[in-house]
Design a protein that fits this description.
By secondary structure, the protein is mainly β. The protein has one helix and 26 strands. This is Phage tail family protein.
Length: 287
């Protein structure tokens, strides 16, 4: 498989029967969902930070030929089969498509996408070739690592103001809002804060040495293990965006170096002991 390239649901878009046309775009920088706040007697608008981003679109043009999957010539019938395979792939409507950008053999970015429009193929009957243009939409904006990374640290009663670097998520360029956290006891009233934004959550409860608190930031649910007891109602979110999310792991530049970016968290509890720790499981996010 040549690099860079894209795949959809595991199907390469550079294959014997088709390939991405030159000039295929990279993922665009998402636009901000702007808000204009004006005050009489003050020039311009009030600055508003922390605005959400708009969904992005990504257009692709594929050159489609007559070759079969094994590379053999297939004539115009082969072209028709290849177009049918692509329209079936892009025509999925009952679920989101798994769109992946392969930078190289080891670097992959994944996004859930949907095809929102496709132009009529430009067919050359004589050469049994066609150009097919499709437009993908990424409703969730961010691209992710395909697999989650894990990070753990000890939890105590105090945390330095600068927090602790979540090294496993270094390199991210977008906030991570769907992390899964496991806080292991003994702990009393633990609190986790994202240093960059000042937002986070606290739980007004106590864990014994044999218990842990599982917090799902995507679903905004919490339960005590191993019993599985739901304690979502005793979790309090605070800071910017707390009405719609519990924790926003936001990467910050390290020493103003744009190539070094890492989220940092403050970990605190009213009481802790030997074995008190936190485990964070999340996929890195990218604009």
């Amino acid at each position: 498989m040549p690099y860079p390239t894209y795949t959809v649901d595991g199907v390469p878009l550079d294959a014997p029967g088709w390939r991405l046309a030159p000039g295929t775009a990279l993922r665009p920088l998402p636009a901000v969902r702007t808000a204009e706040v004006q005050v009489p007697g003050r020039a311009g608008d009030l600055p508003v930070t922390g605005l959400d981003l708009e969904a992005t679109t990504l257009g692709m043009t594929l050159w489609v030929g007559p070759r079969t999957p094994d590379g053999s010539p297939g004539g115009f019938a082969g072209l028709e089969e290849n177009l049918a395979a692509l329209t079936s792939l892009f025509g999925t409507r009952h679920r989101m498509l798994d769109l992946r950008f392969h930078v190289d053999a080891d670097t992959v970015r994944q996004a859930d996408a949907e095809v929102v429009t496709a132009a009529e193929p430009e067919v050359n009957v004589a050469s049994a070739t066609a150009l097919l243009t499709v437009l993908f939409r990424v409703p969730g904006v961010y691209w992710r690592d395909p697999d989650a990374s894990s990070w753990e640290a000890l939890m105590g009663t105090e945390s330095p103001p600068e927090g602790v670097a979540v090294d496993a998520l270094s390199g991210s360029t977008a906030p991570i809002v769907d992390a899964r956290l496991v806080l292991s006891g003994p702990l009393a009233r633990p609190e986790v804060t994202d240093v960059a934004t000042g937002g986070g959550f606290r739980w007004d409860g106590t864990l014994t040495a044999n218990q842990s608190l599982e917090v799902d930031c995507e679903r905004m649910t919490a339960r005590v293990l191993p019993e599985g007891r739901d304690v979502t109602g005793s979790v309090t979110a605070f800071g910017p965006g707390s009405a719609s999310r519990w924790l926003r792991l936001t990467p910050e530049r390290v020493a103003d170096d744009p190539y070094r970016r890492v989220p940092r968290v403050r970990l605190e509890a009213a009481d802790s002991g030997d074995g008190s720790r936190i485990d964070i499981h999340a996929r890195r996010a990218f604009l």
